[in-house]
């Protein structure tokens, strides 16, 4: 076993920056939290354009798929090649990662681009449930149409929307693998779509159960009689026609009480566009007592300056049945 300066716990916990393990091996932590290994070597007998020794950095993969010990072993292999005068870029025996390894790395790299953690969890969760059991351990270079169909066919008719998302996510992983040199040829997901290999399925929309409109006044009266913050949040949601996440994530900075306007920034909207909601007298009557509490968020939960859980209103409705 090769030793170094870093520990497994440090690899998981260190903040942004470049952290040395010794012998040219570094853990690079991006501001987004993504973690990857690089090794710096000097190739014997080779020079750069300025005539100085050829010093080069090589990526060894993300820490989520390459362990500390594996990174040390790879770094040692690169140093041996460099010492022998061989540029690792052209001489190292490249290992082909599995489909699951590439998928998890793609997930880590794209986390900062998703609007919330829930979407990121759903992205990898779909692959975990329907792709990894069938093709997760296969080299990503070996994934073809039969392997993709093995994932899609069992749920294509029974869960058409899930199957559509699964196909999209498998296709993304394979595209990334090709861009990194782990695959060649056409993406099998694209070929399956173009060839209409799977039957056309008409997805039946599933709507949430709706309350009879004649029961709404009684519900609202019940909410108005309650002091719970969740009740106020639900009243606000009803009156503004907002989504749960939009209402619970509201901060006082978004409200202009003189103009009587609530402006939801684009970053908090599903459609990515700024949304403005007029504040009626009824809405203002809900907000004013909450404003006096001095919290940064409108609907504060159990922790100071932190909003209610996204389950708070649902649990309230269940208790009211």
What does this structure look like?
The chain is of the alpha+beta class and 321 residues long. It has three domains: 8-91, Integrase, DNA-binding domain (Double Stranded RNA Binding Domain), CATH 3.30.160; 99-194, DNA polymerase, domain 1, CATH 1.10.150; 213-320, hpI Integrase, Chain A (Orthogonal Bundle), CATH 1.10.443. Helices cover 43% and strands 14% of the residues. It is built from 14 helices and seven strands. The strands form two sheets. A four-stranded antiparallel sheet has the order 1-2-3-4, with helices on one face. Strand 1 (17-22) and strand 2 form a beta hairpin. The radius of gyration is 27 Å and the shape is extended.
Unreliable parts = none
CATH fold-level label of the largest domain? hpI Integrase, Chain A
Q: Kindly estimate the percentage of residues that lie in beta strands according to DSSP.
A: 5-15%
Number of domains: 3
- Count of distinct strands: 7
Largest sheet: 4 strands, antiparallel
**Helix/strand order, N-terminal first:** HEEEEHHHHHHHHHHHEEEHH
Shape call = extended
Please give the radius of gyration in angstroms.
Answer: 27 Å
Can you say what the CATH homologous superfamily of the largest domain is?
Answer: Intergrase catalytic core
CATH architecture group name of the largest domain? Orthogonal Bundle
Question: What's the quaternary structure here?
Answer: single chain
**Mind telling me the CATH class of the largest domain?**
Mainly Alpha
Number of helices: 14
Q: Which percent range fits the helix content? A: 40-55%
Structural class: alpha+beta
For the terminal residues, how far apart are their CA atoms?
A: 61 Å
Average of the residue pLDDT scores: 90
């Amino acid at each position: 076993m090769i030793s170094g300066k870093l520990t497994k716990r440090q690899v998981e916990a260190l903040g942004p920056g470049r952290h040395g393990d010794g012998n040219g091996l570094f853990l690079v932590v991006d501001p987004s939290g993504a973690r990857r290994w690089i090794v710096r070597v000097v190739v014997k007998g080779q020079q750069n354009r300025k005539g100085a020794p050829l010093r080069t950095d090589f990526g060894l993969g993300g820490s989520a798929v390459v362990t500390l010990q594996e990174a040390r072993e790879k770094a040692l292999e690169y140093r041996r090649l460099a010492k022998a005068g061989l540029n690792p870029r052209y001489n190292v025996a490249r290992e082909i990662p599995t489909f699951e390894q590439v998928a998890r790395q793609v997930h880590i790299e794209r986390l900062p681009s998703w609007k919330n953690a829930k979407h990121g969890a759903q992205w990898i969760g779909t692959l975990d449930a329907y792709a990894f059991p069938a093709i997760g351990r296969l080299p990503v270079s070996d994934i073809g149409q039969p392997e993709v169909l093995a994932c899609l066919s069992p749920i294509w008719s029974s869960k058409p929307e899930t199957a559509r998302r699964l196909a999209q996510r498998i296709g993304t992983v394979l595209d990334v693998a090709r861009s990194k040199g782990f695959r060649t040829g056409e993406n099998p997901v694209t070929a399956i779509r173009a060839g209409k290999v799977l039957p056309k399925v008409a997805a039946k929309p599933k709507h949430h159960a709706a309350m009879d409109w004649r029961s709404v006044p009684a519900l609202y009266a019940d909410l108005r009689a309650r002091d719970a913050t969740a009740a106020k949040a639900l009243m606000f949601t009803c009156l503004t026609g907002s989504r749960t996440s939009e209402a619970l994530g509201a901060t006082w900075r978004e409200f202009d009480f003189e103009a009587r306007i609530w402006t939801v920034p684009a970053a908090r909207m599903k459609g990515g566009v700024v949304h403005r909601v007029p504040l009626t007298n009824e809405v203002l009557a809900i907000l004013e007592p909450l404003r006096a509490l001095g919290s940064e968020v409108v609907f504060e939960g159990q922790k100071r300056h932190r909003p209610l859980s996204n389950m708070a209103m649902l649990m309230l409705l269940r208790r009211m049945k």
